[in-house]
């Protein structure tokens, strides 16, 4: 596989993640997420981890997508959520969240920098994983920002999923597609799926109960 | 080594507490039976141990709790003396409480915690090291709280809050001191005075600091000035609880802790060498005079008795601080004497309140004719407190005085004289009102709330224990030379302390 | 699944894995046929406790058991030492108590049939997850177990189905998910740096340096979030206020502790000598003690108070980090024993307290403290249970809390770290302040008479037994502590 191919794939992932997280139109955002997950599966395929690719398609794209669309009300019966997110986080809540996200990101970036400089794993000519690391960091950054900033629960779920994918990419980029990594990512995918399904179901119930799509008085400090 | 008796004595009151909690509220007869049965059994077990100790038997039981830190129960002469006092007074106080609380609510809760309280007191007296002592000392705090707030009025609840604030903080201070002592020297059984005495001289400032930390911890329960604030407030509790707090358990536990600390942990020689005894005497002297002055200012009976306790318990500490056998005899015997006299006085105060509704001192006019036996008992207790022979209080003051001269602190005599004068000043007017003033029967109005509680001047359950403790106070003074009298027992303990 | 160990497939290994996995089966079964009476639950659960006791006996005789298994090319490790065995025993006991309590809870409290049936599989899942966390010896198993535990816990919190429960549960879910991603990122860094996932390999291969430090920071952040350690405790209280009593009891007693356990294991292996970071954790713990205590003191509702008390009490556990980092062997040994004793004592007492609080709330229908005025006459047993549990929380004798506090004080004094002495004092006084607030209401005699619902005797009995066992652990601490001293410290 060529470095250029990797670069293109990585760039596409970042673009899709951006589209997914920035779009206030929820249906479009979910569609972007679906595409993002499929592209992730492609990345796993190219890393010679076919089982992981299959798991990503089934768990990450298909089932998670179904859960999200169900919450939106586009699938099965249930209340339809309003199609657009109008919520904005009050300004006074922002600084702590920004700080936490930045610290997380800075720590991760520093560690990745250290590792790719010193570690025998990455230094031994595996240049092709560099784009993976970079895109992983970028996607993580996007996910963190979105998770910390958004109020709408569906968008926070999307952000969590994107953030998770970023972590998976970093994991694969740091340690290579060894069997331990595949095991960790597989568990991570299952957890993300169960979390998304649970979250989506909860969102549906909450909206049905009293029409809320956020946590309301959100006093918590961390992202 | 024979630990069974110790566990049986301790278990009796614990078991009584559990059984009482399990019995339904209305099972009055069964509860009374359990209460009295447990009190009698415990008293006989303790008496058995007293006899056994005379014959040279050893009673001890221990098991490890932490590495190098065991739970130890051991009956030594000093401990069994306190155990004997508390078991004897518990019997009388139980009888009194049964009569006092007749037909009032929450009796199950009351007697359950009452038993627990006495079990803790017994544990305190039989504890063989500081760790075990602390366990029962804190248990005592917890089990007295429900008794203090028993009435459930806003005033009682507030008093309970103050009580907890003082005692829990003191418990923490005590714990820190004990842990630090343990970290410094390991586990010290009571009587192993050589451990601290054998430490290097550079630890002496630390030992002084720890001594005062521990004294502060004990001083709250012993109501040493300025740590006495909880005691007068706790007066809102029912009369048997006051008797328990002032004579049997709580205040005594604090004083007993100081006795243990000076004689059995530091040792009297080391304490003298560290120079802490002078400080102790000074604190005690201040407390004695302050307590008496405040008592003089009180216009109600129970608060006056409460401040009198503050002053009288400090006699024990004073005796401890006097370096010498006579001071020790005075301290130890006063531990017993004060208990007998004070319990009598509180029983009397309770009788006046129950039968005639009297709370204020100026309402006592002529009560001697209406309740002659109670007033007689009160007179015995009050004269004892002043130090008039032949009641036991005289003996304590006598030994304290001689001890002070022996220890080279003659100024203590001045304190004793002042205190005796003040005692006379606040007790004699009461006696005068009781016996020589005309009462309401002669046409000057009525008693504040008279109830006819029994065939006698008041309920028999209230009268009998009052008379019994008064009799004991009198006998202990008149028969002081006989074997097993408090004074004789205290002398035995003192000999053991100084000859070893 | 192929199990291999030093002694091949010995009886101990079979018994261990049966004890670990059977609860899942039982949970599924109970989900299909929800139990109606307490006795069958107790009878079916008791063998698990006995099996764990037997395992502990074997551990004390022949030392640690360990082994590996390899699904699909992975090599996963497990071990059973004294500490893990004791925690397993604690878990089995609390699970049994909680399961029986849940049956009685349903008898008194109208609960949707579906929600009640859903409780059991979640309980089974939680049991498996907790068991795995105690015995797992590699990061992958720990990750899977941690997530299983978190998701089961969220599920159980949602069972009441009320709006406030759903909101609180949603917040808990989001927190838990983000926490697990922080954990995963930390694992990724460790894996990238050393190429190993098993604890022993990590300890041997991880070079001290910025990467290990950052990885540990991320792992710690994730775990602290899940353990609700100050300042990441925001999710805990709302979740407990709306949850069922048996669920709260399990959660406060075990679930938050499991994250602490993992953190302690990793910390001791990877950055045992990082004094500054350990002090930071200790300071966070101190703030937790103060803040949790203050909030509990100010709380209006009973369950809210108990939940805030959990926040405060978790802070005591964090004091272990500074006392273990760079101190003498004697101090470290004391702090190590104190921590696990405190954990066990708090687990038993907090479960008892949640149940007792649940009983009070169930019987009176009052959620607020002021509604409990004068309750001492009508519900003496529940109040007594609450009190006995509170004795342990306050660290007064004779309770496990007291013995643990003694050890902690001794360690702090020996190490000369006086700050923690002050924290322990403040924590004790604050705890006494909020606990006795309840009694001040309960002992009031001038309150109006309540209409009190009669509860099944089992509800009070279970809570009382738990509270009493926390007391018994105080004076009977020698046996577990001897096991702890023999093994368990990496």
From TrEMBL, chain A:
Tell me, what's a Pfam family for it? MbhD
Q: Where in the cell is it found?
A: Cell membrane
> What are the record keywords, sorted?
Cell membrane, Membrane, Transmembrane, Transmembrane helix
For this protein, the record's Gene3D superfamilies field holds: 1.10.287.3510
Stretches that traverse the bilayer:
6-22, 29-45, 51-75, 96-113, 133-151, 158-178, 184-203
How does the protein's chain sit in the membrane according to the entry? Multi-pass membrane protein
Q: Which GO terms describe its cellular component?
A: plasma membrane
Give the highest taxon in the source lineage: Bacteria
Domain named MrpA C-terminal/MbhD: which ranges? Answer: 12-76
Q: What is this protein called?
A: Putative MnhB-related membrane protein
Question: Organism, per UniProt?
Answer: Halomonas fontilapidosi
UniProtKB/TrEMBL annotation, chain B:
Classify the source by domain of life.
Bacteria
One GO cellular component term noted in the UniProt record for this chain: plasma membrane
Q: What GO molecular function terms would the record report?
A: oxidoreductase activity
Task: Tell me the InterPro entries matching this sequence.
Answer: ComplexI-like_HydComp (IPR052175), ND/Mrp_TM (IPR001750)
What keywords would UniProt list here? Cell membrane, Membrane, Oxidoreductase, Transmembrane, Transmembrane helix
Q: How does it sit in the membrane?
A: Multi-pass membrane protein
Task: Indicate the principal place this protein occupies in or around the cell.
Answer: membrane
Q: Which residues cross the membrane?
A: 6-24, 36-57, 77-98, 110-137, 162-185, 206-231, 243-263, 275-293, 313-336, 376-396, 408-428, 460-480
Compartments it resides in: Cell membrane; Membrane
Domain annotation NADH:quinone oxidoreductase/Mrp antiporter transmembrane: ranges: 127-422
PANTHER family membership: HYDROGENASE-4 COMPONENT F (PTHR42682), NADH-UBIQUINONE_PLASTOQUINONE (PTHR42682:SF4)
What's the protein here called?
Multicomponent Na+:H+ antiporter subunit D
UniProtKB/TrEMBL annotation, chain C:
Tell me where the transmembrane regions lie. Answer: 14-33, 40-60, 80-103, 115-136, 142-160, 172-193, 213-237, 249-268, 274-294, 314-337, 343-363, 375-397, 417-436, 457-477
**Limits of the NADH:quinone oxidoreductase/Mrp antiporter transmembrane domain:** 136-431
Lineage, highest ranks first: Bacteria, Pseudomonadati, Pseudomonadota, Gammaproteobacteria, Oceanospirillales
Q: Name one GO cellular component term.
A: plasma membrane
The family annotation for this protein states: Belongs to the CPA3 antiporters (TC 2.A.63) subunit D family.
Regarding the membrane, this protein is recorded as: Multi-pass membrane protein
Which species is the source of this protein?
A: Halomonas fontilapidosi
Stated name of the protein: Formate hydrogenlyase subunit 3/multisubunit Na+/H+ antiporter MnhD subunit
Compartment(s)? Cell membrane; Membrane
What does the record give under GO molecular function?
lyase activity
The alphabetical list of record keywords is: Cell membrane, Lyase, Membrane, Transmembrane, Transmembrane helix
């Amino acid at each position: 596989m060529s470095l250029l191919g990797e670069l293109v794939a990585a760039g596409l992932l970042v673009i899709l993640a951006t589209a997914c997280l920035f779009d206030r139109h929820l249906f479009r955002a979910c569609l972007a997420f679906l595409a993002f997950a499929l592209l992730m599966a492609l990345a796993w395929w190219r890393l010679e981890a076919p089982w992981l690719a299959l798991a990503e398609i089934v768990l990450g794209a298909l089932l998670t997508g179904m859960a999200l669309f169900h919450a939106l009300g586009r699938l099965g019966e249930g209340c339809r959520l309003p199609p657009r997110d109008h919520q904005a986080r009050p300004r006074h809540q922002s600084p702590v969240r920004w700080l936490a996200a930045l610290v997380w990101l800075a720590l991760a970036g520093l560690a990745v920098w250290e590792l790719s400089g010193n570690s025998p794993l990455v230094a031994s000519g595996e240049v092709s994983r560099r784009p993976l690391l970079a895109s992983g960091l970028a996607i993580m950054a996007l996910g963190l920002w979105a998770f910390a900033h958004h109020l709408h629960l569906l968008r926070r779920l999307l952000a969590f999923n994107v953030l998770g994918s970023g972590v998976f990419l970093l994991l694969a980029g740091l340690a290579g597609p060894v069997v331990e990594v595949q095991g960790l990512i597989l568990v991570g995918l299952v957890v993300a799926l169960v979390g998304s399904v649970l979250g989506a179901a909860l969102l549906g119930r909450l909206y049905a109960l009293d029409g809320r799509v956020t946590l309301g008085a959100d006093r918590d400090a961390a992202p | 080594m024979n630990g069974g008796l110790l566990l049986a004595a301790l278990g009796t009151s614990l078991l009584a507490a559990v059984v009482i909690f399990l019995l339904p509220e209305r099972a009055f007869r069964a509860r009374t039976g359990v209460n009295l049965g447990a009190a009698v059994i415990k008293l006989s077990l303790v008496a058995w141990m007293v006899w056994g100790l005379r014959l040279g038997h050893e009673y001890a039981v221990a098991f490890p709790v932490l590495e190098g830190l065991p739970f130890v129960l051991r009956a030594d002469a000093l401990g069994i003396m306190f155990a004997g006092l508390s078991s004897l007074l518990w019997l009388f106080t139980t009888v009194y409480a049964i009569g006092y609380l007749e037909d009032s609510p929450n009796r199950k809760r009351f007697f359950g915690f009452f038993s627990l309280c006495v079990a803790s007191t017994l544990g305190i007296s039989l504890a063989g090291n500081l760790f075990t002592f602390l366990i029962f000392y804190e248990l005592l705090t917890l089990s007295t709280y429900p008794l203090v707030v028993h009435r459930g009025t806003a005033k009682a609840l507030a008093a309970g809050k103050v009580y907890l604030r003082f005692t829990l903080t003191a418990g923490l201070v005590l714990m820190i001191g004990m842990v630090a002592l343990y970290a410094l020297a390991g586990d010290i059984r009571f009587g192993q005075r050589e451990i601290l005495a054998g430490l290097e001289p550079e630890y002496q400032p630390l030992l002084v600091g720890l001594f005062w930390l521990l004294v502060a911890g004990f001083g709250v329960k012993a109501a040493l000035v300025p740590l006495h604030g909880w005691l007068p407030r706790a007066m809102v509790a029912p009369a048997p609880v006051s008797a328990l707090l002032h004579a049997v358990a709580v205040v005594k536990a604090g004083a007993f802790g100081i006795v243990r600390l000076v004689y059995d942990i530091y040792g009297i020689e080391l304490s003298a060498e560290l120079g802490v005894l002078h400080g102790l005497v000074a604190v005690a002297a201040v407390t004695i005079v302050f307590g008496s002055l405040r008592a003089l200012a009180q216009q109600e009976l129970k608060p006056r008795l409460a401040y009198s306790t503050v002053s009288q318990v400090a006699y024990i500490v004073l005796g401890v601080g006097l370096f010498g056998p006579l001071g020790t005899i005075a301290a130890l015997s006063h531990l017993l004497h004060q208990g007998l006299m004070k319990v009598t006085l509180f029983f009397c105060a309770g009788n006046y309140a129950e039968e005639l509704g009297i709370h204020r001192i100026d309402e006592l006019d002529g009560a001697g004719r209406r309740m002659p036996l109670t007033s007689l008992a009160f007179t015995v207790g009050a004269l004892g407190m002043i130090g008039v022979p032949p009641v036991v209080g005289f003996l304590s003051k006598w030994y304290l005085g001689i001890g002070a001269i022996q220890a080279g602190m003659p100024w203590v005599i001045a304190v004793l004289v002042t205190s005796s004068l003040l005692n006379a000043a606040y007790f004699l007017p009461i006696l005068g009102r009781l016996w020589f003033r005309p009462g309401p029967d002669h046409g000057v109005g009525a008693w504040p709330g008279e109830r006819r509680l029994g065939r006698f001047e008041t309920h028999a359950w209230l009268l009998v224990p009052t008379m019994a403790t008064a009799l004991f106070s009198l006998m202990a003074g008149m028969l002081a030379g006989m074997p097993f009298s408090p004074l004789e027992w205290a002398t035995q303990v003192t000999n053991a302390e100084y000859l070893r | 699944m192929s199990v291999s160990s030093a002694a091949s497939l010995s009886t101990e290994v079979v018994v261990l894995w049966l004890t670990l996995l059977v609860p899942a089966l039982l949970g599924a079964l109970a989900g299909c046929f929800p139990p109606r009476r307490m006795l069958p639950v107790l009878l079916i659960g008791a063998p698990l406790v006995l099996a764990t006791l037997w395992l502990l006996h074997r551990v004390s005789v022949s030392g640690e058991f360990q082994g590996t298994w390899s699904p699909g090319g992975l090599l996963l490790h497990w071990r059973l030492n004294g500490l893990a065995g004791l925690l397993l025993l604690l878990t089995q006991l609390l699970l049994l108590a909680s399961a029986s309590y849940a049956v009685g809870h349903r008898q008194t409290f109208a609960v949707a049939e579906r929600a009640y049936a859903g409780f059991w599989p979640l309980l089974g899942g939680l049991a498996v997850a907790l068991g795995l966390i105690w015995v797992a010896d590699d990061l992958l198993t720990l990750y899977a177990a941690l997530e299983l535990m978190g998701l089961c816990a969220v599920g159980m919190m949602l069972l009441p189905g009320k709006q406030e429960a759903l909101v609180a549960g949603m917040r808990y879910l989001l927190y838990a998910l983000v926490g697990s991603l922080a954990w995963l990122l930390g694992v990724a860094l460790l894996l990238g740096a050393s190429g190993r996932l098993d604890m022993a390999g990590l300890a041997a291969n991880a070079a001290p340096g910025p990467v290990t430090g950052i990885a540990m920071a991320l792992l710690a952040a994730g775990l602290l979030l899940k353990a609700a350690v100050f300042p990441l405790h925001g999710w805990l209280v709302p979740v407990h206020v709306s949850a069922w009593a048996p669920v709260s009891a399990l959660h406060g007693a075990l679930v938050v502790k499991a994250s602490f356990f993992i953190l302690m294991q990793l910390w001791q292996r990877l950055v045992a000598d990082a004094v500054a970071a350990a002090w930071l954790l200790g300071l966070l713990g101190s703030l937790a003690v103060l803040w949790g205590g203050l909030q509990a003191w100010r709380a209006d509702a009973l369950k809210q108070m108990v939940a805030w008390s959990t926040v405060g009490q978790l802070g005591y556990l964090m004091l272990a980090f500074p006392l273990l980092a760079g101190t003498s062997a004697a101090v470290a040994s004391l702090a190590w024993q104190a921590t696990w004793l405190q954990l066990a004592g708090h687990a038993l007492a907090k479960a008892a307290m949640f149940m007792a609080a649940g009983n009070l709330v169930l019987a009176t229908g009052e959620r607020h403290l002021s509604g409990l005025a004068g309750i001492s006459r009508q519900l003496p047993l529940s109040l007594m249970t609450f009190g006995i549990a509170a004795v342990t929380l306050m660290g007064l004798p004779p309770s496990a809390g007291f013995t643990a506090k003694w050890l902690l004080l001794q360690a702090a004094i020996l190490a000369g770290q006086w700050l923690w002495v002050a924290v322990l004092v403040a924590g004790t006084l604050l705890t006494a302040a909020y606990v006795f607030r309840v009694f001040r209401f309960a002992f009031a005699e001038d309150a109006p008479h309540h209409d009190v619902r009669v509860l099944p005797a089992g509800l009070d009995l279970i809570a009382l037994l738990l509270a009493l066992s926390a007391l018994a652990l105080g004076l009977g601490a020698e046996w577990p502590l001897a096991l702890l001293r023999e093994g368990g410290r990496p």
